[in-house]
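INFO batch 0412 | record 1 of 1 | parsing
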Amino acid sequence: ALKNKGFTVISEARKRNTHAGQYARKVTAQVKRLLQEGVPPAQITLVGASKGALIAMFVSTALQNKEINFVFLAGCAEGIRRFDINFYGNILSIYDENDQLVGSCRKFSEISTGIKKYKEIMLKVGTGHGIIYEPLKEWIDPVVAWANPEKNK
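INFO prediction complete | emitting tokens
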């Protein structure tokens, strides 16, 4: 869906039971390569859903770059408190009001020291964690707006 909106998408299917911290190191290295190749940080957006959101949180913490955009889709659960996570960058949190697994990232954003911009959207789709299983307009449109550097200044 994001490719159809004109974005260059770099993605792969993670193997089942992937270790989030290890995978985050891989993604962090990929982003560092993009930066070294001259891609402006404001033109980089990491979107993670559920466990992918946790991975994106680890990447945000590791990169410590306030210009990179992050989208945490259905990703903030009480369990992330056990990790040493400190959000950096422009953070968009999206979750559904009926999600029984995750909720708001606000309390985590309030204790993070590297956030340049923060926004949170609570959807009222009603499918709970199921919002991540298909590219719904309700979350695709805000992600597109967030990833557009001209709108994210």
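INFO post-check: The radius of gyration is 14 Å.
INFO record closed
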